[in-house]
Amino acid sequence: MAVKIKLKRLGKIRSPHYRIVVADARTKRDGRAIEEIGIYHPMENPSRIEVDSERALYWLGVGAQPTEPVAHILKLTGDWQKHKGLPAPAPLLVAAEKADKKSLFEAAAREAMDEPKDGATTPKAKKEKKVEAPAETETPAAEGEAAAETAANEG
Fold first, then answer.
1. Does the CA dihedral 128-129-134-135 come out positive or negative?
2. Which of 111, 54, 42 has its CA nearest to residue 83?
3. Is 95 helix (H, G, I), strand (E, B) or coil?
4. Per-position DSSP letters for 60-90, written without gaps between them
């Protein structure tokens, strides 16, 4: 029985996810598999590749033939080089770990608590009140007398 290491497609339209499987060469692409040895998610940035190296080396050792895409994946992970006795490739790029949502929320809450509260975040519309100023009602005669007094004091 000819055994191949190939990709089994999963996922939605335009969102492929693959499993790296060991299957009989005569089975369909998404048919029954003997064993699943890894995953490949090409749409993530960088692509997510996880291969069980021990099982991949076992199947390569017993004569399983990888398809072209799987051979390329095995070369990226270094399993093909281990099988052939070649020097290892550069390490794969790994996506940065995402921060935990709970810790982000707690940090934002602490920051909000530390800020001084000067009132509402948006100013409230103020109603204009008409305030009457005390009117100084001086008669023209009183103004004339005040002006005369200042002139007398100066002179």
1. positive
2. 54
3. coil
4. HHTTPEEPHHHHHHHHHHTHHHHHHTPPP-P
In whole angstroms, what is the distance from residue 83 CA to residue 62 CA? 11
Taking CB atoms within 8 Å and a gap of at least 24, the contacts of 18-27 are 18/42, 20/51, 20/56, 20/70, 20/73, 22/55, 22/59, 22/64, 25/65, 26/2
Q: What is the pLDDT along the chain (155 residues), one digit of tens a residue?
A: 689 999 999 999 999 999 999 999 898 888 888 999 999 999 988 889 999 989 999 999 999 999 999 999 999 888 888 888 887 777 777 777 788 888 888 888 888 877 666 665 666 677 777 666 666 655 555 566 666 666 666 65
Q: For residue 34, which of 21, 51, 52 has the smallest C-alpha distance? A: 21
Give the other-Cβ count within 10 Å of 148's Cβ: 10
